[in-house]
Amino acid sequence: MVGSEERKVKITYLMPATWNKNSVEAELPLPIVHTSYILPEQFYIFTWTGQEWKNPSLVSEGGTQAFQDDFHPDFGQFKKAAIPADKFFNTARIRFDSPMKNGVYLSRFEDDTDGIYQLVINPNYFLETGSIRKIAVLIDYDASNTDVTQQELLNIIKNEMLDQLTPVDSFNLIFSNLNILRYSDRWVSASESNVIQAFESLNNPLSAYSNLPSLLGNGIDFVKTHGNDGKILLISDSDNYGEYSVANTLIKDITGLMDVKIQLHITDFQTISVPYYYFNNQYFRGNEYLYTNLSRLTGSSYFRLLDGFSINQTVAKGFEHLNGAINSFDLHTDLEDGFCFSRYYVFGNDHVTYLNDIIVQVGKFYGSFPFNIEISGNYGNEFFSNETQIEESETYECDTIAKQIWVGQWIREMEKNSPTNDMVNNIIFQSIADRVLSRYTAFLCIEDSTYFCPNCEDETELVAVEGSEENGAEALTLFPNPFIKLLNIKLYCEDPAKVTELALYTPSGMLMHRFDTDGLQKGENLIRWNAESLPSGMYFLIFRSNGKTYSFKVIKI
After folding, report:
1. Angstrom distance (rounded) from CA 94 to CA 60
2. For FRET with 120, which of 39, 284, 307, 447 sits at 20 to 30 Å CA-CA?
3. Mean pLDDT of the chain
């Protein structure tokens, strides 16, 4: 490609989704925009909704932003939103209403060889524990240890409280500062209005430095003073107490404040300047030793952002695990007239899960619906077993991505141990057939960048591209290029009277088509040309205006 030429590249960027009982979210890949030398003025998001995915919204530091309805003759009805350039460095998520019904979501894909299902299930729906939770949320913030802003962190916590708490639950917010700040001196009902009011009433409650010991002591005192029947969720990025002798002293002091054991769940969102400590023949990162032992001694959970979660997932995990674990958990699926096999957990596992954990499983099926689901386990020292049945009309159809997800899980399982030569051959074959990378097929990353994608949809048509004018020169954009049948010519015209030619030529100079320029107007013009009769090949679009000539390479395939 000549240095002065341009080309358009389409990148498919898959992001994992986070499920809860009310919504499904995925982080937007804004970091990829940071690689651009010149940032676009807007980052556009388009979505096509239906019966499965409804009510999209953008969730970011600034709150929640709704999508706007739009229409395009080639793409139909869709929804769009835009993030301005000054927000590219903040995390943003797209959110949809959860398509789960009665605690279950089931989609299926079938081709000539396989039937693939994706199952999402919320165990809490089937247990009906009716437990009432009292949660003291302790927030400790050190600006030097994270790239998450204070407002962004508070918004994430607020959204998780709205998603995971109910009006029968109670909460309080306690903030790390020079003087520890409590939102309330009593438990507050976790109704939607109360949660929103709590965060809207805050005025810079956090300092830029950690005061972790005082915060923990204040939180324990609050729970003790108000019945000793609450739980604590600590959300912190502190790393000041990682050395074992210091951590052991703090652990002794903290547990010594408790009359009875108070559950202390911990979420660590540190990502910057993480110190390492080595003792007992292992490495510990940041406050890992402190948090591991505090959570273990209080029968609680501990999650780190460094374990591969996003900040939203890490905070969500802390809230999800407040109700404790289901032991000896078992999820069994089959068909009324058939069976399921090769099941893999994307989220969750078949040994222990937490009451509010959303379980995502992919597997294969053979036979005909209905689809039978049975979950069983031990929760609160009581065994349970529940069954439900899903008719085929209650499922959603999915595409080949479902098969690729299954293949990815299968490859991961095969690579866990030391595979034999036959297993390696099977992994390579499956990896190549379904275009899913394995450790043996890294060469799949090296794509041929010289070929064209005749079936790729060009969503850039949905974005108004502003041409950069230089000394009054017109700007012209062609899309798609290469094209199959329809060529769109977007032309910005400063003075239509000075346009003398817009024509298509072969490389040898033969005129193939001359466009009518009499109807051009000042400003942006869109010419949609049906070139079905044009032979395949390379051409040049010549544009003459105001005494200047512009040449654009066009390829018909």
Report:
1. 9
2. 307
3. 86
- Taking CA 385 as the corner, what is the angle to CA 384 and CA 389, rounded to the nearest 5 degrees? 150
Measure the CA–CA gap between 416 and 410, rounded to whole angstroms: 10
Beta-strand relationship, 548-556 and 537-545: antiparallel
Q: From CA 184, how far away is CA 205, in angstroms rounded?
A: 13
Cα four-point dihedral sign 124, 126, 129, 130: positive
Q: Which long-range contacts (CB under 8 A, 24 or more apart) does 197-204 make?
A: 198/171, 198/173, 199/154, 199/155, 199/158, 202/154, 202/173, 204/150
* Alpha-carbon torsion angle 456, 462, 463, 467, nearest 10: 80
**Cα 37 to chain centroid, rounded:** 25
Amino acid identity for residue 156 in this structure: I
Segment 245-254 shows an average pLDDT of 95
Other Cβ atoms closer than 10 A to 150: 18
pLDDT at residue number 472: 36
**Domains with residue ranges and CATH for the chain:** 18-97 (no CATH), 134-321 (3.40.50.410), 470-556 (2.60.40.1930)
What is the C-alpha radius of gyration for the chain, rounded to an integer number of angstroms?
Answer: 29
- Using CA atoms, how far residue 505 sits from 132, 285, 497, 529, 534, in Å, is 75, 65, 23, 15, 11
Note whether 305 and 287 are within 8 A (CB): no
Specify the residue for token string 């929760």: 379
Does the bond joining 480 to the residue before it have cis omega, within 30 degrees of 0? yes
pLDDT (tens digit per residue) in 117-147: 999 999 888 886 666 789 999 999 999 999 8
CA separation for the pair 190, 462 (Å, rounded)? 42
Q: List CB contacts of 377: < 8 A, sequence separation 6 or more.
A: 123, 326, 327, 328, 329, 330, 353, 383, 384
